[in-house]
Automatic annotation (TrEMBL), chains A, B:
DNA-binding as UniProt keyword: yes
SUPFAM superfamilies: cAMP-binding domain-like (SSF51206), Winged helix' DNA-binding domain (SSF46785)
Listed name of the protein: Crp/Fnr family transcriptional regulator
UniProt domain HTH crp-type: residue ranges: 208-281
Record NCBIfam families: PRK11161.1 (NF008365)
Record-annotated Cyclic nucleotide-binding domain positions: 86-144
Organism (species): SAR86 cluster bacterium
A GO MF term: DNA binding
Length: 290, 290
DNA sequence: CGTAGTGTTGAATTGAATCAAGTGTCGTGG
DNA sequence: CCACGACACTTGATTCAATTCAACACTACG
């Protein structure tokens, strides 16, 4: 039994416990089994659940207060009563199937979304029809801020695997931010972070080689997996090589070639969507040695 | 007498009036002459000035209420009394000389800045010493939002020409946003706009050719000049070819070559830093034909 | 079980980088 | 005010990293 983690999985800390195996396979497990897996050894205490349903990572009945992502997502820095107020405006939609769209380019902007489980990609379609991936989103991350200024989403966003999200109507978020200074502060920070991140990618795209971009991408994923308590060294890619290429400004073929070349160098191990980072130090050196 | 406009210049609408000639030359004109130029035919009414000094584009005595950029910059959508409150927290610093730094990478984040005149570039220095330009900023635009999340600026920012700015201490901006819903709303919009803009550049860098990037850059400058009532077809570049290259992910040589090639095609006319867009339609076609 | 989508690998091509040599421009100090 | 030096820009020849084209293998799913 292999051990590659996707953002759909609940990784545990105790050695004895195990986790769900393959991306998108969650639904194939029985609720009972999923419950057993998820309740053993989780870092963040989960409210004793009335029904097993509560445990499924796509379950829409979790409140912000009980969500295991609460310390990464919007509720950070809010106190209990404030979280309760936030909770009231969050809409927990039905899960999204792989390929389903959260919204499409130039749809009217209404909400931002927090990823609860799974993952999403945003992409921009140019007039000439070809698309470019502008971002990947993992649990705890916020989607849709590109629509705030123009009241229309600038990108389309689709689920990469079976995923679930929390919808936060923006006008209500604004209203609440007016009442809760720490929410306003935190949302400014979230947007500032998005800006800083986008500028890093600007640097990456304008000066890094294909190998540097790819190494940087893998390390980025790694630390984002770590953030949600999944293994930073072994994980499943939810996106295709094509998606990665469109994101990094490379072709599918180049991405594939770089993966095999990094493997030959002993830095990573690739098997389809399964990635293992064997030597994070040397991966870092690839980037700084530019 | 040529007619190329820089962000330092005050362009007027009436045909009879003239404007200051060359970038960075403002200080060489007498205050009297500058005053005469600036007061004739300006679109936005300027308060009758007690001293001629008021007219200089770098003059720090202008209030938000009287600033000709007020409808582009932060005060947008604020009413008179609100603008007054904003005014109270804005610090109008001494002008910056060409090359002077507003802040440096990893300085403690304290303020965001609104460009009042001139222009700035932000750039990121990697460990390996080489820098990459992450953005250019023109009058009415906001600088420094990359520092909000981490409390440290992620970039360095320097003046490209003699320039002046309004400093807005961020903690005070937050406090005021708490009181003025429309300020909060507008600042969310400004940040959202920065995010959308950065994602556009992501697309540009990951799929456009050198020619497409350059055309897109020129058209972008053009519409930003138009925003501040300067000619969208004739302007002076305040940045070097090297800066442009670092921004677009190209080398100096390539930028230079593309400029001459676009000139040969009759789309633009280049003379040093003087740019004229001769055929905006065809420039647009270069981009969409990707 | 077949088909569409995804991934790999190789060979040829090419757009932009690099290397190199020059001219042009600006600001400074004599 | 001019001469100098540093920087900015241009142009050409060569190289190279990544794309393109092409053929094939794998996988996953109805």
């Amino acid at each position: 039994m292999s051990q590659f983690w996707s953002a759909n999985q609940t990784q545990t800390n105790s050695e004895g416990s195990r986790a769900i195996l393959v991306a998108n396979s969650v639904e194939k497990k029985s609720d009972i089994e999923a419950a057993k897996l998820a309740t053993t050894g989780g870092k963040i205490p989960v409210r004793p659940s009335a029904t097993v349903l509560k445990i499924c990572p796509h379950n829409s009945a979790v409140s912000c207060a009980s969500c295991r992502l609460s310390e990464l997502c919007l509720p950070i820095a809010l106190n209990k009563s404030e979280i309760h107020q936030l909770d009231a405006i969050v809409e927990r939609n039905r899960p999204f199937k792989k390929g389903e769209h959260l919204y499409r380019q130039s749809d009217e902007f209404k909400s931002v979304y927090a990823v609860r489980s799974g993952s999403f990609k945003s992409y921009f379609l140019s007039d000439s029809g070809q698309g470019r991936v502008t971002g990947f989103y993992m649990p705890g991350e916020i989607i849709g801020m590109d629509g705030i200024a123009s009241h229309k989403y600038a990108n389309s966003t689709a689920a990469l695997e079976h995923s679930s999200i929390c919808e936060i109507p923006f006008s209500q978020l604004e209203k609440l931010s007016q009442e809760l200074p720490s929410l306003q502060h935190h949302f400014f920070a979230i947007m500032g972070n998005e800006i800083a991140k986008d500028q890093q990618i600007h640097t990456l795209l304008s000066s890094y080689t294909a190998e540097e971009r790819t190494a940087s991408f893998l390390l980025g994923l790694s630390s984002r997996y770590a953030r949600v308590s999944l293994s930073p060294t072994r994980f499943l890619l939810s996106m295709t090589r094509g998606d990665i290429g469109e994101y990094l400004g490379l072709t599918v073929e180049t991405v594939s070639r770089i993966f095999t070349s990094l493997q030959k160098k002993g830095l990573i191990s690739v098997n389809n969507r399964e990635i293992e980072l064997l030597n994070i130090e040397n991966l870092r050196e690839i980037i700084s040695g530019s």
